[in-house]
Design a protein that fits this description.
single chain; 374 residues; mainly alpha; three-stranded antiparallel β-sheet; 15 helices
Length: 374
């Protein structure tokens, strides 16, 4: 009878379990690292015990399982990140880490998407500004004024192929230059200067400095800055729009680096504000990374909302996201550090002011660095 029961397929696993038998597994040793397997996942490298050769059905099943194991964590983490400020940082610091997507991996992915979209949008905006700076709109009075000042020119034929916009036409400022009409609307600014640097050459600058008393001459830093300004002025003379475009793109390219280097300062400020709390600096850093993740995620949503035109819903949604970005940190600090609202609001205001100062310093350093590197 016992032999008959053991022969039944449905009873085999049950009897083996009762008798302490080994579980059924495709492999005795891990296919990845060679460690003897004790369970479904390798205790050494974590790889799942699956057959070495898979059928199409097994391949599809394992693919779906892997997707929901990792990407499912990402969606769950994203939901908590948006709706429950400070929750994920508390969970991570409490040791509950496998249930959620790792904050560092999330930072890399979300920040990449954010800055990719940010660079695309800002580049398009800079290009539009450059186009706008190189064109001018002329109405009927402007054209009549041109005809009076230049009776020898056939103004109508010159502007015949110009772009018509409502009751005006859009023409190139280069065309206006060619007919000597730079002062029609606005005079185009010539040359490029840094901090009001109007020295014509390095020789002129050195002569002026030598004429001053020694105590009133520029120091090392101001001298370097002025000389650099002269170099850029000579390079971009009458091409200030081109400089603005190139410098703006370079500045935005370093935007991500500035925010990254401010991350440990973000955590340090929290450490100082909550110095009496029993938190390691690393735990404040985890909180900071999660806030950065939310900031990039919300910022990405704002960019998408701003890119959609002529739909008021997305305008309101973008505004709401902006308010949530600001107040999110306040709610997260309250949940993370568990202090009264009065103390949390006070520390939030202090933190905001101090961090804003560091952000301004970071951007100023970035701008100076680019000036000397450009």
């Amino acid at each position: 009878m016992d032999d008959l029961v053991k022969a039944l397929p449905g009873s085999e696993g049950f009897i083996d379990a009762e008798q302490g038998g080994d579980r059924k597994q495709p492999n005795e040793f891990c296919l990845n690292c060679g460690t003897k397997l004790l369970d479904t996942f390798c205790q050494h490298c974590g790889q799942k015990d699956i057959p070495k050769r898979q059928t199409l059905d097994e391949l599809w099943t394992n693919f779906i399982s892997s997707f929901w194991s990792y990407e499912g964590k990402f969606f769950l983490t994203t939901r908590y990140l948006i709706t429950r400020p400070g929750f994920l940082a508390k969970e991570y610091n409490a040791g509950k880490r496998e249930s959620y997507y790792h904050p560092a991996r999330m930072y890399v992915f979300i920040s990449f998407v954010f800055f990719l979209l940010f660079s695309i949008v800002t580049s398009q905006s800079i290009d539009k500004d450059v186009v706008k700076a190189t064109t001018a709109e002329l109405d009927k009075d402007d054209i009549n004024e041109l005809k009076q000042e230049h009776p020898s020119l056939n103004i109508d034929s010159i502007f015949r192929k110009a772009t018509v916009k409502d009751s005006s036409i859009v023409v190139s400022k280069i065309l206006l230059d060619s007919i000597n009409k730079l002062n029609l609307k606005e005079k185009k600014k010539k040359g490029f200067t840094i901090m009001g640097n109007k020295y014509e050459s390095k020789t002129a600058y050195d002569s002026i400095q030598q004429a001053k008393p020694k105590e009133k001459r520029d120091g090392w830093f101001m001298k370097k800055l002025n000389l650099r300004g002269i170099e850029l002025n000579e390079r971009y003379k009458e091409r200030d729009d081109e400089f603005g475009k190139e410098f703006g793109k370079a500045f935005l390219d370093n935007f991500s680096k500035v925010l990254f280097f401010l991350l440990p300062i973000f955590a340090l400020l929290l450490k100082l504000l909550y110095i009496r709390k029993d938190y390691f600096y690393s735990e404040h850093l985890v909180f900071s990374i999660y806030y950065y993740n939310f900031f990039y995620l919300a910022g990405t949503a704002q960019i998408v909302c701003g890119y959609v035109e002529n739909i008021s819903f997305f305008d309101y949604l973008g505004t709401a996201i902006g308010f949530w970005i600001f107040f999110y940190l306040l709610v997260a600090m309250k949940r993370m550090y568990n202090q009264s609202w009065r103390k949390t609001i006070l520390k939030f205001l202090i933190f905001s002011i101090l961090f804003f100062v560091f952000v301004a310093i970071g951007f100023a350093i970035n701008a100076l660095f680019l000036v000397f590197l450009f």
